[in-house]
Amino acid sequence: MNSTSISAALARFTTNLQLSDVPQAVRERAKHLMLDSIGLAFATTTFNYSRITLAAMQELGSGHASVFAHSERLAMRDAMLLNGVLIHGLDFDDTHARGVIHSTASALPCVFGLGERENASGADLLTAYLCAMEVSTRVGAVAQGGFHKAGFHPTGLAGAFGCTLAAARLLGLDEASATHAQGIALSMASGSLEFLQDGAWTKRLHPGWAAVSGTVAASLAKHGFVGPGAPYEGRYGLYALHLNDAALPDLSIATTGLGDQWEIDHVALKPIPACHFTHASSDAAVELHKQHGLSGDEIENVIVRVPGPTVDVVCEPVSNKKRPANSYDAQFSIPYIVAAGLLKGRFTLDDLDDASLADPAVLSLAQRVNYEVDHESTFPRHYTGEVIVFTRDGRRLVQREAINRGSSDRPLSNDDIVAKFFDNAQRAVSHERAAQVRDAVLDLDRMPVSTLAGVLRRPD
């Protein structure tokens, strides 16, 4: 096993990390990121796809693992898969900008599931979560947006490697075994963007599947299963296989600054329930609504300037984007989101219900929303957006958001995250119940995982 490989360096970091090595502010931010995702899990229980996923997992068998906001218990890996769906299903969860990855959606189901089974402390869970976040974001960042261009979802691909090392940490693997585990995960990591063509549900499965894959890989390695030694930089490694024959990227991104530069500081929180690539454009549209209050009849047409690498995700195919078939289509549609912002001055979960998706005024305006590539964008550091409205009386109204709200350069505060948590959790439970969950999550490093699990489950 090559001691200078990326997998060896990442294994060394994660097996040796102590919670005391992590700055207090990073630890606090990590707990707030978990809180954000748990609030989303509670909100997702009100949607049909969560009930369908639960039924499918129950058909596979029962177990003792907890599911967020449910009284039902499942086998551990099935609970991980469902918890990933609950966190990521609304596409309202955190995003690491350079990695273009929803890291918590895989990391939290993994460490929670294994932590509960292993009777771990909350401090152990938090340490493993930090390991997963550092690894998955860095592995994603190496691709520099290339995974998306090749049709792969980084949350599934890179998330599997972060989960592998988090699982290795909780299972007590040594450095050599943790290195093997990453090689094993290479044959499990997956995630296709084909869902973008028709609004299919498969994206929701990717983070939970990454958690399952990482757990299986770590368990195999623990028992002596041998994995490839160069899963990242190898001839048939992660990047060579998933970047469409592009030149090998800067692999040093995966390991530079480990233990000194915390990628969790660069994880962005979503202020609206849609693909992060749409946020700046949405905010620009909302600001134009506040300034001018235009009706649909007053608008001749709209141009939205977006970063080039995001076009295939939120602007194409044009026919799908201008008339979303379902809520998932809408969350990845610049025309729909901008039209809603211009006419309603908002974009919330309420704008994803059936009545909103059929709103004739919004759909009519969406037909007049077109896009241009923004050659001045600072993507992927920022997911920029500019909305230009041409009115029927000859005005040209412009609003540009150069730094998307919620990004590391324009972050939501921890108090903002708590407020978002309550907004989401109270769609399913009372304020009092949500407050109990908040207190438990923010105090998790001072309690066993079993106590946290009892609070997160729905009472029988």
UniProtKB/TrEMBL annotation:
All residue ranges annotated as the MmgE/PrpD C-terminal domain in the record: 273-444
Protein name: Immune-responsive protein 1
Domain MmgE/PrpD N-terminal span(s) in chain numbering: 9-246
Superkingdom of the source species: Bacteria
Pfam annotation, one family: MmgE_PrpD_C
Gene3D superfamilies, per database record: 2-methylcitrate dehydratase PrpD (1.10.4100.10)
An example Gene Ontology molecular-function term: lyase activity
Organism: Caballeronia sordidicola
Family according to the record: Belongs to the PrpD family.
InterPro entries from the UniProt entry: MmgE/PrpD_sf (IPR036148), MmgE/PrpD_sf_1 (IPR042183), MmgE/PrpD_sf_2 (IPR042188), MmgE_PrpD (IPR005656), MmgE_PrpD_C (IPR045337), MmgE_PrpD_N (IPR045336)
